[in-house]
TrEMBL record:
Protein name (database record): RNA 3'-terminal phosphate cyclase
Domain of life, per lineage: Eukaryota
GO cellular component, one term: nucleus
UniProt keyword annotations, A-Z: ATP-binding, Ligase, Nucleotide-binding
RNA 3'-terminal phosphate cyclase insert domain residues: 219-317
Binding site for ATP: 137, 326-330
Record keyword NAD present: no
Catalysed reactions, as listed in the record: a 3'-end 3'-phospho-ribonucleotide-RNA + ATP = a 3'-end 2',3'-cyclophospho-ribonucleotide-RNA + AMP + diphosphate
Organism in which the protein naturally occurs: Ceratitis capitata (Mediterranean fruit fly)
GO biological process, one term: RNA processing
Residues at the active site: 352
E.C. numbers: 6.5.1.4
The RNA 3'-terminal phosphate cyclase domain, residue ranges: 45-369
Length: 392
């Protein structure tokens, strides 16, 4: 800090010293120095993309811990902050009134000093097809620890490559987060595809005092398989029908439950651009929600899209895992902050998940453990820090 800042701290320490017993002083000093120290994070570690940035910023806001991130997205063809990362960073700056250095396009290093989380209404317009699901991924854990309910209005890409489709956020991620006691209302108003974007959604996020631990290790029996196969713009309806048929073939005879899939074309009110995709999910008797998806590219093959998503979900159901590979990394922050030990039965860990674990351990002091059961399945557990929302 500056010399003036040092003078203020000295006076602050004196007041603490004369006001509290020695034991409280000792714990206070330890906590103060840990929380006020700037943590430096290497953005090129493991996955080396936007995952480190999002998770580190979210935890920085929640824990009020200043961070410095270097080598941002060093493992990507175009390193540094891109559109969606910059919009996510600026949103978190607004939410916490943070002091920020380096928040400009292509910046490879930032420093972020957050303040208190301010609940309210926030709007982000990426002006491109940048993924609004990734912006939501960064802001959701933060606003959960605000004082009051918050609302996000997000404009950009809803179904774009290299990011979760927004449908999976509400249909697959949300049921998993509800196990922790976290939920949100999600309203998809318009879809936005590459390259124009223009998709729009509203998300209402109530606060929580603390997070429950989860024990997602018992698969149970499949109670429901459902899904949505959609096309938009000039793409013909038969592509959606092909997706549906191909996915159904892959999911037949997996369990006693027959899949219930919808095939439809989006109305002009929802989107005028060309786009397509498939979202599938299964729900089990033990409360597990597992999902898969596929996104249409420039040349759409409905059969291949449906087969891809159907095969992925069928494999999860055969293996009997409770958390799919796309959700596992998004649960890491919540496992780290929960009170007690959380456990999930999942697939082999992705690089995104290992990256999220590294950041969570570095910033919270929690510890993740990995074991393999007799079936060769992966069980990931974490002793969370029991973080409490003191604003409520």
């Amino acid at each position: 800090g500056t010399d003036n800042g040092s003078d203020v701290r000295d006076k602050f320490y004196f007041l603490v010293r004369v006001s509290y017993p020695f034991v409280i002083q000792k714990n206070f000093y330890k906590s103060y120095f840990i929380m006020s120290k700037v943590i430096e994070i290497d953005g090129s570690y493991l996955e080396g993309g936007g995952q480190i940035l999002r998770n580190a910023l979210s935890l920085s806001c929640i824990l009020r811990r200043p961070i410095r991130i270097i080598k941002i997205r060093a493992n990507r063809p175009n390193p540094g902050l891109s559109n969606q990362h910059l919009f996510g960073l600026n949103l978190l700056q607004n939410i916490t009134g943070a002091r920020v250095q380096g928040n400009q396009m292509k910046s490879t290093a930032i420093e972020f000093h957050p303040g208190d989380i301010k609940s309210g209404h926030y709007k982000v317009d990426t002006l491109t097809a940048a993924s609004i699901a990734l912006v939501l991924q960064a802001a959701l854990p933060v606003l959960v620890f605000g004082k009051n309910t918050s609302e996000l209005e997000l404009i950009g890409g809803t179904n774009v490559g290299m990011a979760p489709q927004v449908d999976t956020m509400s249909e697959v991620l949300r049921p998993n987060l509800e196990m922790f006691g976290v939920s949100f209302d999600f309203d998809l108003l318009q879809r936005g595809y590459y390259p124009r974007g223009g998709g729009r959604c509203k998300v209402v996020i109530p606060p929580v005092r603390n997070l429950k631990t989860v024990n997602l290790t018992c698969f149970g029996e499949v109670n429901e398989i459902c899904g949505w196969c959609f096309v938009a713009g000039k793409l013909p309806m038969h592509i959606a029908t092909e997706m549906k048929k191909a996915a159904e073939v892959e999911l037949q005879n997996i369990c006693r439950v027959q899949p219930v899939l919808e095939a439809y074309k989006e109305s002009l009110e929802v989107t005028r651009d060309n786009g397509s995709g498939v979202i599938l999910k299964a729900v089990t008797s033990e409360g597990c929600t597992i999902g898969s998806s596929a996104l249409g590219e420039r040349r759409v093959d409905g059969h291949e899209l449906g087969k891809k998503a159907g095969t992925e979900l069928a494999n999860y159901l055969r293996e009997g895992v409770c958390v799919d590979c796309h959700v596992q990394d998004q649960l890491i922050i919540f496992m780290a902050l929960a009170h007690g030990t959380s456990r999930i039965l999942t697939t082999e860990l992705t690089q995104h998940t290992r990256t999220a674990m590294h950041v969570a351990e570095l910033m919270t002091g929690c510890k993740f453990y990995l074991e393999t059961n007799e079936k060769g399945q992966v069980i990931l557990s974490c002793n969370g820090i029991g973080y409490e929302n003191k604003q409520m």
